[in-house]
């Protein structure tokens, strides 16, 4: 038996003196079995009382660690991570454009964009100019890879900072909302009408100055509940989504519980809004 | 009224007869000579017992408790039961649950998702006598069916179904019927009863593993 085996208990491959927290937290098994007896037979514990004492110590320590990790998860770190990801992506794209123009003077068949830069980076330079072009392409490849790493980091961190918000908005949009508001604390204090137009400040102030109509949505446009709804109903969809996102942010900030019902309420509301499109079609057919 | 095991008694608190178990107080409940009152208004399992449902409990039995939250109810279960595995998904209530667990050497807290039993099958033992479930998630029947693997033959399920978690708009009775129908995949239902008025739109279900 080894740690990786999916029919092994959490204690497999360990002695009772090992640090067992990771084994509790990350292990899996396809099916339970009589673990106390298995542990005694494997020499892990002297008897079942001894096993239960070790198990309790390990489960409490593992849960302590997991709680500390999740509660220490800091909205400011998430804010920096999402801004860094956007900067890295934008800069990589700008440099890729420069690299494409330059590399086209040195090589044939250079594609544009990050993929083009990656292709250039894999070439063997033969003179000092090519050396610079390939080196630049190398940096672009690294920068794009860092942006991907940051995205993965945000996906892991966002549910720890704001479980309900990340579940409802998706981790990246949750991070962007926290970033635009300046923190989970200030997002939780914003009225839903503000959350609805976060990221559309230019349009909002143009409207307030008397130019243009009021924006229906800001960054929440990227949520499928808004972008997947027909244009006539997007205002309603954005209003409904912003309302639920505000509630989710408040639960995350003030309580920290996971509340599945708010996600179901959003689904119900969206179903009602989308049903208007179907009703409309039927009417026009009649 | 169901027979109570040694670890649970009916005792007088403020002139009323209420359930009680023996252990360290957890949530400011009244105590009487080492016995702590089990508040049915704060515990769905407490309400199921007070409501006289056909529940068969015995001292020292092995328990898996899904949706332990801050440990209000699971603390009473651990007072009379044997090894008690408490699964909770959210970190903040888990912090309270850890205090409850530290005062009871038979309580094992697990910060896990009850919808993914694979992630704790390497810790929770098989052949348990009792599965208690109080999770507010859509698919409560699915969770109970997937976790039947931890119960021994004829093992007992005590389930509190929250109608609003399944469908906020549907009639609660319709929701209860459909959840109960799905449960029969792994269980035989022996009793069901609404937990009103202490817990609105909740149904208590007692079942045996098939």
From TrEMBL, chain A:
Database matches in SUPFAM superfamilies: Nop domain
The Nop domain covers which part of the protein? 161-275
PROSITE patterns with a match to the protein in the record: NOP (PS51358)
Offer a single GO CC term for the protein: box C/D methylation guide snoRNP complex
InterPro entries from the xrefs?
Helix_hairpin_bin_sf, Nop56/Nop58, Nop_C, Nop_dom, Nop_dom_sf
Q: Kindly list the GO molecular function terms attached to this UniProt entry.
A: snoRNA binding
Q: What is this protein called?
A: Nop domain-containing protein
From TrEMBL, chain B:
The molecular function terms in GO held by this entry are: histone H2AQ104 methyltransferase activity; RNA binding; rRNA methyltransferase activity
- Which parts of the chain are coiled coil? none
Entry keyword annotation includes Disulfide bond: no
Q: Which GO terms describe its biological process?
A: box C/D sno(s)RNA 3'-end processing; tRNA processing
Where is S-adenosyl-L-methionine bound in this sequence?
A: 72-73, 88-89, 113-114, 134-137
Question: What role does this protein play?
Answer: Involved in pre-rRNA and tRNA processing. Utilizes the methyl donor S-adenosyl-L-methionine to catalyze the site-specific 2'-hydroxyl methylation of ribose moieties in rRNA and tRNA. Site specificity is provided by a guide RNA that base pairs with the substrate. Methylation occurs at a characteristic distance from the sequence involved in base pairing with the guide RNA.
Quaternary data: Interacts with nop5. Component of box C/D small ribonucleoprotein (sRNP) particles that contain rpl7ae, FlpA and nop5, plus a guide RNA.
Which HAMAP family does the record match to this protein?
RNA_methyltransf_FlpA
- What this protein is called in its record is Fibrillarin-like rRNA/tRNA 2'-O-methyltransferase
Specify the species: Halonotius pteroides
């Amino acid at each position: 038996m080894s740690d990786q085996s999916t029919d092994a208990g959490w204690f497999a491959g360990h002695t009772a003196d090992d640090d067992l927290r990771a084994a509790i937290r990350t292990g899996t098994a396809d099916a339970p079995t009589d673990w106390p007896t298995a542990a005694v037979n494997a020499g892990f514990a002297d008897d079942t009382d001894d096993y239960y004492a070790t198990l309790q110590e390990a489960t409490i320590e593992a849960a302590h660690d997991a709680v500390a990790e999740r509660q220490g998860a800091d909205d400011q770190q998430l804010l920096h991570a999402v801004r860094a990801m956007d900067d890295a992506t934008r800069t990589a794209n700008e440099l890729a454009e420069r690299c494409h123009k330059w590399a086209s003077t040195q090589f044939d068949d250079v594609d544009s964009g990050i993929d083009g830069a990656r292709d250039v980076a894999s070439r063997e330079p033969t003179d000092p100019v090519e050396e610079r072009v390939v080196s630049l392409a190398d940096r672009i490849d690294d920068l794009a890879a860092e942006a991907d790493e940051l995205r993965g980091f945000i996906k892991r961190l966002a549910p720890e900072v704001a479980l309900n918000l990340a579940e409802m908005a998706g981790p990246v949009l949750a991070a962007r909302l926290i970033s635009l508001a300046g923190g989970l604390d200030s997002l939780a204090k914003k009225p839903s009408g503000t959350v609805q137009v976060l990221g559309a400040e230019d349009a909002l102030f143009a409207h307030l100055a008397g130019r243009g109509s009021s924006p229906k949505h800001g960054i929440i446009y990227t949520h499928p509940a808004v972008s997947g709804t027909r244009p006539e109903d997007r205002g309603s969809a954005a209003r409904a989504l912003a309302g639920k996102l505000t509630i989710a942010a408040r639960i995350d900030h003030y309580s920290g519980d996971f509340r599945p019902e708010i996600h179901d309420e959003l689904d119900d509301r969206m179903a009602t809004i989308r049903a208007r499109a179907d009703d409309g079609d039927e009417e026009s057919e009649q | 009224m169901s027979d109570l095991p040694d670890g649970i008694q009916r005792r007088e608190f403020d002139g009323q007869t209420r359930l009680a178990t023996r252990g360290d107080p957890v949530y400011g409940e009244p105590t009487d000579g080492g016995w702590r009152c089990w508040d049915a208004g704060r515990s769905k399992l407490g309400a199921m017992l007070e409501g006289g449902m056909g529940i068969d409990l015995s001292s020292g039995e092995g328990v898996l408790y899904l949706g332990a939250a801050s440990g209000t109810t699971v603390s009473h279960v651990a007072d009379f039961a044997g090894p008690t595995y408490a699964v909770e998904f959210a970190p903040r209530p888990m912090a309270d649950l850890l205090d409850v667990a530290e005062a009871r050497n038979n309580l094992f807290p697990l910060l896990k998702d009850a919808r993914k039993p694979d992630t704790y099958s390497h810790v929770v033992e098989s052949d348990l006598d009792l599965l208690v479930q109080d999770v507010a998630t859509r698919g409560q029947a699915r969770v109970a069916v997937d976790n039947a693997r931890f119960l021994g033959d004829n093992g007992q399920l005590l389930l509190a179904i929250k109608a609003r978690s399944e469908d906020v708009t549907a009639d609660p009775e319709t929701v209860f019927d459909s959840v109960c129908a799905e449960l029969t995949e792994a269980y035989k239902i022996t009793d069901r009863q609404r937990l009103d008025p202490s817990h609105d739109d909740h149904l208590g279900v007692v079942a045996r593993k098939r």
